[in-house]
Design brief:
Elements: E1 8-10, E2 17-24, H1 28-36, H2 38-44, E3 51-57, E4 64-70, E5 76-87, E6 91-98, E7 108-117, E8 121-129, H3 133-141, H4 144-161
Antiparallel strand pairs: 1-2, 2-8, 3-4, 4-5, 5-6, 6-7, 7-8
Amino acid sequence: MADKNKTTIIAEPGKQEMIITREFDAPRGLVFKAFTDPELYVQWLGPRRLTMRLDTFEPRSGGRWRYIHKDQSGNEFGFHGVYHEVLAPERIIDTFEFEGLPETGHVTLETMKLEELPGGRTKLIAQSVFQSVADRDGMLQSGMEEGVNDTYDRLAELLKKM
């Protein structure tokens, strides 16, 4: 039997989107809180090998966000975006941009939906729409998969403690 709590990443060839799904053994409201509470957010977002610092965090419609990941060598990686809609406890729509690219403007539109499942469980469905297939494929080749898997494993561990 497949692990229902495994993260899946679907990226069909030639498409500008990527869909990530993951189920959590936690109620929807709690999962949503992990995305909007700064003290919780920094505990799970990103690969385990990086530390995270929140620079700006306004999880509300029209708010902004920016965080920096730092590796053991002290290299910093910045990311930022704008929240278009924060609708508790079901949906967050925002933009995502990695600051380390040679030119700016490679903005991704992200829609994260949380579905209630029986037994106090939650299904997360995250759709990322890139400006081009090349942008999407570049993100996939950047080692993003490790970050996504680590991120959602860390979130599951945090939710167990809450």
